[in-house]
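Entry 0007
Protein: Rab-GAP TBC domain-containing protein
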Amino acid sequence: MLQEESDLSLIIAQIVQKLKGSNLYAQLERQAWASLQRPEIKLESLKEDIKEFFKISGWEKKLQNAVYSELSVYPLPNHPAAPPEHLKEPLVYMRKAQGSWEKRILKSLNSMCTELSIPLARKRPVVEQKELLNKWNEMGTDEPDLSLFRPVYAPKDFLEVLINLRNPNYENGDSLSFRTHLGLIQVPLKVKDIPELKECFIELGLNTGQLGIDDSTQVPPELFENEHVRIGQKVLAEQDSAAAQQYVRQGSPTALRAELWALILNISSQPEDVLYYEQLKTNVIQHDLLVDSLIYKDVKLTASNDDYYFVFEDYLYQVLLCFSRDTSVLSHFAYNSASPPKSYIRGKLGLEDYAVFYPPNGKIAPLCFLYHEPYKLYQIFREMYVRFFFRLHSISSHPSGIVSLCLLFETLLQTYLPQLFYHLREIGAQPDGQYMLGEHVEALWTSTIIASFLSFETVSKAAEVSKLLVSVLSLSSLSNQVPVLRIDMRRMLAF
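Output (structure tokens):
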């Protein structure tokens, strides 16, 4: 109990410190100072009056959403004596495998630079800058010669690395037993079984309505669909991230999906966000990176040849090129088993003071993301990537990582459909993944958002932490120092 209280206090203090550097904190501070001019704010009840003002004016809800967003990705506290790398990945053999994989990627990238005699980055000539700016919305019509560029790695290369993962402290032996796992993934990680999955995804049960199933043509819309849409509109009107997350567990109406995702991820389109995107666009126009050619080739080989996704080709270029310049993405390496690749200023090789991350967002492998209006929805892509998608190409023991997901699928298939599993194994069937229809992708991503928020015991505990932080930040906004926080932790941990 004491350890839990200490961990929670540490999380609260660190989230307060992080929010103090955000734009939201600056807005709260301005609002708090402005509220002092209001007649209902009394000196003798300053704290309670300001908290009430935040609540009435809607700023308390915005702060709660920010706290909820931070809690959803905040890594679980480690033992105080644990080294910093344990925060990224606790298992040594996983860290070594990820490190070897990164060296392999960097070697491939450097070899390409040497063979083609091209730099990792260069400033575009003025003429080239103007040309790129003029065709920014029509980059799909450009046909550069990319025949000499090769992908940094193929999906089968990454699959081979996952298949060859082994825990040196675990020996399964050659003899088969009822505990033997016959799948491709041979690492002893704890994954959920069917009863545990049913508990996590209880809304998928037969007794609960689910959009996409109970809104079929055979089911009258007044029985479920109409009411679900009405509730969704009410959730959006309330602007509550936790309520939105709970709501989409029963499905997300197509007309409300974009707004619901933005609310769950605590994203709002502010003028400064548009300016930030324009700055990234300017960086793309001014500087040419080697990864730009890899992005071009990746999109040409995938989306441009797909009957469903070719219309998004221009949007993909815009979003991915800007994403490769976004240095804010580097923050997710604090809880990612991967590390951003480094380069050095010419003539300063090996000097850490002259080291730079390449590319600026720390990612080499491009990720195709399909969305409309990139200047508005770029933030949603970035937030979903640093929260969820990065785990699909990083080697780690995280329950949402690619290793655990593959092991979960194989374990369920071997346990509940053993004959099918054995047949596929005997004929040597290999894993295969193809692009899905847009509606299926959206449903999958909705489920991704849902699953990611299940890491904490209850949403109510997160809401309680939010309330405590509202109290802390409402005071600290009027002071140069955060006041000492004294709370009854037992009341919180009783949930």
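Curator remark: The first strand starts at residue 121 and ends at 123. The two ends are 13 Å apart (CA to CA).
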